[in-house]
TrEMBL record:
This is Uncharacterized protein. Keywords: Membrane, Transmembrane, Transmembrane helix. It comes from the Bacteria. The chain crosses the membrane at residues 12-32, 52-73, 85-114, 126-150, 171-190, 210-228, 240-259, 265-288.
Length: 312
């Protein structure tokens, strides 16, 4: 690894370890009974509800896992970590953080232009600084993990992503069409026209709706790219978009259910989520499987060519 890449890796690791600290401190305080950051009696009362306690425990666990994953990616023995474990943790981090990282900064700028104020949520039960601490931490963690994952993938699977993703099997393509296209179109609609009565409730602000638009675009782009020519973007960019979009669809469907406003899940969201997670998973795995077979065939041809030349 070059000196510049090593410095970048170290900087990303430091950011990944420090960015979640405010978020974790806030969550631990809430779990211990504190009402810091709440602005109303209703908001303070909600912190002690089972739904919020369980949610806080889960998110603290996920954040700790994310930091541990970042550390593991930089260890000398990182290349011996089972591929499936890297796949699962990388997919989770990508699916949960990418919409925030890609959509929220742009959404805040658009909201500032449109409304003259910056807000990340309509919930008046929490102070504005809470959202600033939470989402800035998410964004920084997302950037750091993106850098570390990119370096790791290029070093370990550079041959795999040197060839653009190819169309998967017919079954995987149909599954992707059923799971990713409705999800993408629905999020685009809710982001452009508002959630209305069918979409994610309390997602009315420009910043929030921009996240929905980005989520929808990633979903549709990830489904389309393996099926069309990718000369304009190149193999690695095509893989990045396909991977990110598939992960976002797989994880954002369940997330929209778990984070439903007041625990009231809209039927349309539940129906789309039931299709999106298995559909995007089958599609993404199908694309990866095809790439693995292509890489194996290429290496087999190379070995055969070397054997042939050695016997000439």
């Amino acid at each position: 690894m070059s000196h510049l890449r090593l410095r970048l890796q170290r900087a990303a690791l430091v950011v990944a370890c420090l960015a979640p600290v405010p978020y974790l401190v806030l969550k631990v305080l809430w779990l211990s009974g504190s009402t810091i950051g709440t602005t109303t009696a209703a908001g303070a009362s909600e912190m002690h509800e089972t739904r919020f306690v369980v949610g806080n425990l889960i998110t603290v666990f996920l954040m700790v896992v994310a930091v541990a994953f970042a550390i593991a990616l930089t260890r000398p023995a990182a290349h011996r970590v089972p591929a499936w474990l890297v796949f699962v943790l990388g997919a989770g981090a990508t699916g949960l953080l990418a919409p925030i990282l890609l959509g929220l900064p742009l959404g805040l700028v658009l909201q500032l232009i449109a409304d003259g104020a910056v807000k990340t949520a309509t919930d008046e039960g929490l102070a504005p600084w809470v959202f600033g601490a939470v989402y800035s931490g998410f964004a920084l963690l997302g950037i750091a993990l993106a850098v570390l994952l990119a370096q790791y993938v290029v070093a370990r699977w550079g041959d795999l992503i040197a060839v653009a993703p190819q169309p998967p099997s017919t079954v995987a393509t149909v599954a992707g069409a059923l799971g990713m296209v409705p999800f993408g179109l629905a999020n685009l609609y809710w982001g452009i026209f508002g959630p209305g009565s069918t979409g994610p409730q309390a997602m009315d602000l420009v910043a929030q709706r921009t996240v929905l638009v980005v989520t929808g675009l990633l979903s549709l782009a990830a489904f389309a790219l393996p099926l069309v020519s990718q000369r304009a973007v190149g193999p690695r960019m095509a893989w990045l978009i396909t991977w990110t979009g598939c992960c976002v669809v797989a994880f954002q469907g369940p997330t929209q259910i778990l984070l439903a406003n007041g625990g009231d899940v809209q039927p349309m969201i539940a129906f789309i989520a039931l299709l999106s997670t298995p559909g995007s998973s089958l599609y993404g795995l199908g694309v990866l499987r095809g790439a693995g077979h292509l890489l194996w065939l290429s290496r087999a041809v190379d070995r055969w060519h070397l054997v042939f030349r050695s016997h000439r």
